């Protein structure tokens, strides 16, 4: 019998915590670990005196035959463990559900919020204030409402504080990120409580309780207790995420904080009034996230595992590359496309010119509204200009597919093209990584990494070309080297006429072989990357290379295609990410 409460943990809490740990362990960033530890400590020390008071005043009791024996301030060891394990489970569930979310996009303020959101926040404040008053009243009155009063007076002031500080942020986040990690563990703990109270593991004494049950023997106070404690945990974590999002989003307000979270900056971020937020930047980040989600499932998934500020800058870089590529690709004529390339060059000239020329007004005058934020928010201060100009030269090479010309003559040409459109991107990603990583690398290590990123760029671009033979043919483009075609007695025009022919499939496999050769050459060097970015960069590369693996497996028309392009099923992408994070 002395093991009853311990048994509750062994059967109900520890296995669940274990499962969540196994799933989440590879996905946890340093910041996730810190915030989980912090919330556990806060929960532990905030509950300790309160719970001790309840036990010493016999509001709660534990039959001696149900517990092991050791106590701290009258609280049994199993109950102390409960504070920790409940917080841990709810925190991990919150982290899991929030992993795909880039929190900076949900920063908002009074001005930006809809009247309905403002009203909702005010109603929340009123409700929590009423709960505090009611708690005070029930305690003063004594008797049957005492326990409920003690719960309300203990939890609601903190809930009111976090709701007031982070209410707009909480309301902007998708409901599943906040409501699910509150409700799911609450229901689970209600069930556990029902079973535990039913077995007499712990008891709420009559005289200080209302005596109402929600169902079975689940007392209303217990139900409220689990609901408010899970809400406290989730609101606390959301407040932490809002503070971190503020630091990561506004580097000008928090210079130098990107190399580690400093407590002082964090406090400043928490108290910084949302009216001071640069909402133009927040809106730009939202647009960039939308673009990424719409256009690249591989990089969208990979972005979820990058640490805060690096994640933002990579998404902004993606957005710039995407917008620039689309402006050129979607042009009706070569003249129009060339015009965009010149304007983009003009933009880079100004952004890197060092003069006081107004780059933002250049973007506003020369580009369509939906593209402007992608240009304005490109993190040029962290990126060298040369790869960006090279990238534009790569887009210019696409214009050479005119008047029956096929500029990719041989393997050297395709590599040169890939170096311009993809190796440049790899190098740019690395510069962002170097800036945001806490580990400084030697010059030699950086050079080796950039060389590997160049080679990895070839690999990814070859996969891209292999995937898009059909789509490119529809645009009158054949990136397969003409001399490869010649060996098969084909011309580029034969591919345009019939991109699905068996010989095209054979050449696709040949290009994929080359892609995997380049991948093998550079993959090992990724081990030189600092630990906090190694896993995420490997996931980014591997999720894209997985497209190549799918194409190799099918070696024919792939069964799952989107606009004639092979796609990797969502579950397989998740597996690739999880597996690589686990082993990197
Ligand atoms: C996690 C995250 C948000 C990463 C962002 C990466 C990024 C900035 C990608 C830019 C992509 C882009 C739009 C570039 C324009 C030129 C272009 C189209 C290049 C092709 C990309 C494929 O994109 P997608 O399939 O969406 O394109 P289309 O629909 O066909 O238009 C490319 C294949 C290039 C991608 C190349 C990279 C991301 C570089 C990879 C290398 C590294 C990450 C470095 C690894 C480090 C070492 C040491 C090896």
From TrEMBL:
Keyword vocabulary terms for this entry: Carotenoid biosynthesis, Isomerase, Membrane, Multifunctional enzyme, Transferase, Transmembrane, Transmembrane helix
Gene3D superfamilies: Farnesyl Diphosphate Synthase
Its EC number(s): 2.5.1.32, 5.5.1.19
Stretches assigned to coiled coil: none
Domain Lycopene cyclase: start-end pairs: 10-94
Location within or outside the cell: Membrane
Catalytic activity: gamma-carotene = all-trans-beta-carotene; 2 (2E,6E,10E)-geranylgeranyl diphosphate = 15-cis-phytoene + 2 diphosphate; all-trans-lycopene = gamma-carotene
Record Pfam families: Lycopene_cyc, SQS_PSY
Pathway field: Carotenoid biosynthesis; phytoene biosynthesis; all-trans-phytoene from geranylgeranyl diphosphate: step 1/1; Carotenoid biosynthesis; beta-carotene biosynthesis
GO cellular component annotations of the record: membrane
Molecular function GO terms recorded: geranylgeranyl diphosphate synthase activity; intramolecular lyase activity; lycopene beta cyclase activity; squalene synthase [NAD(P)H] activity
PROSITE patterns xrefs: SQUALEN_PHYTOEN_SYN_2
InterPro entries referenced in this protein's UniProt entry, alphabetically: Isoprenoid_synthase_dom_sf, Lycopene_cyclase_dom, Squ/phyt_synthse, Squalene/phytoene_synthase_CS, Trans_IPPS_bact-type, Trans_IPPS_HH
Membrane topology, from the record: Multi-pass membrane protein
Bilayer-spanning residue ranges: 6-24, 36-55, 80-97, 123-140, 146-164
GO biological process per UniProt: carotenoid biosynthetic process
NCBIfam families, per the entry: CarR_dom_SF
Family label: In the C-terminal section; belongs to the phytoene/squalene synthase family.
This protein's name: Bifunctional lycopene cyclase/phytoene synthase
Native species: Xylaria arbuscula
């Amino acid at each position: 019998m002395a093991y009853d409460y311990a048994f509750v943990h062994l059967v109900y809490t520890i296995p669940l915590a274990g499962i969540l740990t196994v799933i989440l362990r590879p996905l946890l960033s340093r910041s996730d670990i810190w915030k989980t530890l912090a919330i556990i400590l806060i929960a532990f020390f905030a509950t300790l005196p309160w719970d001790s008071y309840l036990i010493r005043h016999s509001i709660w009791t534990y039959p001696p035959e149900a517990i092991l024996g050791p106590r701290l301030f009258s609280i049994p060891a199993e109950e102390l463990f409960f504070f920790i394990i409940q917080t841990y489970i709810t925190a991990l569930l919150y982290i899991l559900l929030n992993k795909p979310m880039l929190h900076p996009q949900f920063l908002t303020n009074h001005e930006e919020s809809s009247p309905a959101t403002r009203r909702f926040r005010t109603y929340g404040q009123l409700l929590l204030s009423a709960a505090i008053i009611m708690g005070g009243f029930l305690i003063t009155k004594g008797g049957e409402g005492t326990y409920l009063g003690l719960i309300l007076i203990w939890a609601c002031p903190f809930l009111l504080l976090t709701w007031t500080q982070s209410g707009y942020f909480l309301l902007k986040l998708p409901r599943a990120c906040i409501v699910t990690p509150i409700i799911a563990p609450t229901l689970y703990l209600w069930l556990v409580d029902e079973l535990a109270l039913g077995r007499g593991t712990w008891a709420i004494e009559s005289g200080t309780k209302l005596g109402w049950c929600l169902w079975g023997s689940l007392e209303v106070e217990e139900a409220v207790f689990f609901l408010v404690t899970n809400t406290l945990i989730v609101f606390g974590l959301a407040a932490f995420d809002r503070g971190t999002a503020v630091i990561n989003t506004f580097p000008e307000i928090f210079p130098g904080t990107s190399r580690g979270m400093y407590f002082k900056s964090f406090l400043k971020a928490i108290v910084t009034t949302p009216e001071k937020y640069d909402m133009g930047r927040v809106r730009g980040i939202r647009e960039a996230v939308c673009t990424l989600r719409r256009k690249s499932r591989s990089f969208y998934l990979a972005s979820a595992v990058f640490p805060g500020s690096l994640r933002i800058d990579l998404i902004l870089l993606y957005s710039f590359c995407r917008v620039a590529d689309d402006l050129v690709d979607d042009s009706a004529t070569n003249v129009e496309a060339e015009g965009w390339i010149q304007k983009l060059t003009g933009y880079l000239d100004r952004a890197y010119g060092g003069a006081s020329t107004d780059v933002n007004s250049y973007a506003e005058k020369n580009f369509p509204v939906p593209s402007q934020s992608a240009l304005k928010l490109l993190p040029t201060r962290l990126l060298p200009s040369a790869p960006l100009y090279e990238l534009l030269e790569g887009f210019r090479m696409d214009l050479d597919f005119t008047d029956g010309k096929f500029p990719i003559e041989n393997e050297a040409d395709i590599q040169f093209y890939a170096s311009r459109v993809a190796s440049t991107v790899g190098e740019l990603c690395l510069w962002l990584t170097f800036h945001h990583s806490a580990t400084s690398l030697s010059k030699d290590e950086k050079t080796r990494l950039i060389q590997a990123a160049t080679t990895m760029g070839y690999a990814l671009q070859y996969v891209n070309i292999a995937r898009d033979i059909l789509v490119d043919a529809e645009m009158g483009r054949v990136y397969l080297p003409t001399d490869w075609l010649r060996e098969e007695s084909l011309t580029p025009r034969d591919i345009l006429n019939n991109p699905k022919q068996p010989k095209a499939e054979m050449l696709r496999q040949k290009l994929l072989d080359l892609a995997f050769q380049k991948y093998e050459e550079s993959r090992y060097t990724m081990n030189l990357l600092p630990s906090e970015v190694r896993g995420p960069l490997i996931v980014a590369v591997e999720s894209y290379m997985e497209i190549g693996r799918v194409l190799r497996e099918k070696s024919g028309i792939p069964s799952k295609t989107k606009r004639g392009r092979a796609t990797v099923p969502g579950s397989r992408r998740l597996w690739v990410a999880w597996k690589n994070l686990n082993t990197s």
